[in-house]
């Protein structure tokens, strides 16, 4: 388990078909009752978001695989997110952080964090 993993879990569907289904089909089943409605849904919802949907997940996966092969201490790789509270003149503020690639060593310590661009 990556460092910082707590009670709240994050699950990712890795199967491309199921990811597509739960992103573009399941939430819109009521809109997909006829062929005309399905065509409209494809044009308004699926096609405008499809390139981003496919490329983001695929590119992050490629980056994670690269890190696992090229970071010498790498034992586990995944994503990481968290927050840090800091004291400012305006009071306490919480800042959220996220890494697309988080590499952990055998002791569970971060050895690399990265963002996929």
How would you describe the overall organization of this protein?
- This protein has 117 residues and is α+β, with helices and mostly antiparallel strands.
- The protein has one domain.
- Strands 1-2-3 form a three-stranded antiparallel β-sheet.
- It is extended.
- The two termini are 25 Å apart.
In short:
With 117 residues, the chain is α+β, with helices and mostly antiparallel strands. It has two helices and three strands. It has one domain (16-114).
Radius of gyration: 19 Å
Total of helices: 2
Please report the total strand number as a whole number: 3
How helical, in percent, are the residues? 25-40%
Structural class: alpha+beta
For the biggest β-sheet, the strand order reads 1-2-3
Layout: helices, strands, pairs:
Layout: H1 16-25, H2 35-70, E1 76-88, E2 91-104, E3 110-114
Antiparallel strand pairs: 1-2, 2-3
Protein traits:
3 strands; three-stranded antiparallel beta sheet; 2 helices; 39% helix; 117 residues; alpha+beta
